[in-house]
Amino acid sequence: MRKSDKRRSSSLLRNPVRVPLKWLATAVALAVVATTGPATADGPGHGAEPTPQTEPGYAAEPGDGQGHEPGLEPTPERAPTSEVSWLSFPGGVFAVDSLGHTVRYRACDGDTGRVADPAMRVAAGVASGAVVVGGTGYRYRVPLVGRSEGTLELIRRHRPPIELTGVVVTSPQPPTDPVAGAQLFPLSGQLARVVADASLNPAGATVRDLSGRYGDQQIAVNGALRPKAASVIKLWILVELLRRVDCGQVSLDDGVLVTPADVVGGTGQLQFETFPQVVTLRRLAQYLIKYSDNVAANVLITYLGGFAPVNALIDSMNQRSTILARRMLDSTAAQRGEENYTSPDDVVSLLGAVWDGEILTPASRDLMIGFMREQTLNTKIPAALPPGVPVAHKTGDLPDASHDVGYYLIPGTETAVAFLTAGPMATGDETVRRMARTVYDFLVTPTTNGEAVEE
Q1: Which residues pair with 224 in a beta bridge?
Q2: What pLDDT is stored for residue 8 in this prediction?
Q3: Which of 9, 15, 217, 382 could be 175's S-S partner, Cβ–Cβ 3.0 to 4.6 Å?
């Protein structure tokens, strides 16, 4: 879509020997350490998985629910935004938590898991240090300010070091033009009034300009709200699958055997087909989003290796409010307190990273957004907008949650949005529609210095 296209392509990942050294996603053989950060989902799937083992400070631990709104999980403790950042380079990420003094390398060649670096140095807004994992050294210099450039050097015995450079990502990313960004601030007040009116539904909204019209500014109202994720968690499942495609580890033409034991109800189309049958990863990925298919979600969770890899993806992007902890429609797991959660801020963090090519290649990004444009559940964002307004989105519905998130694709005003609610679904649907229309009306109304122009 824009600047990131210049620094990423699938060929960089599949043919690393043909590109300049500084752009290589190294060929270091690391053992993948299965760790979890946040967790996911919508479902009673068959064969419930064990509760994910989480690392202190990185998982969302279920609370007792006392003193909190129904359907909401207490916001987990997390470092201030300015204390965490991650370095994006072709084929991987390097995450830094300067408050917790931990780092994580996760790329096509492996995953270190969360690693403590007690000697991490933080000075002048830059975290620097070095750790050794599995015989490989990781020497880093990562600014804690988004959109800047960081470096990571991989050091191995008897081999020359490899230096990786890339853009630093924070949540939120700072605006590229603060003056233009200030013109988006009045939208915060408008959304706040919608949220205040939703007496039955705790609600939150995060909005990020992707077009540059508002200087890539991000605004939020209750952006840390943490309701059940419902089917919005399926976005992270898709990104983890497409990341492996980008790494050359799988092909979307590969087939997966789906059996009658995999079939669950709820949303989706696969449940109406005859099994066993082999279904391609491409169709599973498309149905996951287009129909919010619960069978596809559960099959892909198993295919990817369970909850841990999806949660590792989430943790590597420092998205502390999101977790995949159960399968779709797994009511038994839900009764045990195993639930999927997310927040508007985390959703937009993911959507922004996808759009900017910071977590997927341009080809995979375009495929993902294409699936979101095919969404068939259109009673919220699309229903609130005039017919024909281009959107790409993903819904989430539970009896006590109603969400819609995605992209407004109005040419010249492309925007990432996340509208999340807890409480009764019916009134939550209406709250989402009101928030969606409020953003649309703001985007299409001519402004001068943030003030509406009278027609």
Answers
A1: none
A2: 37
A3: 217
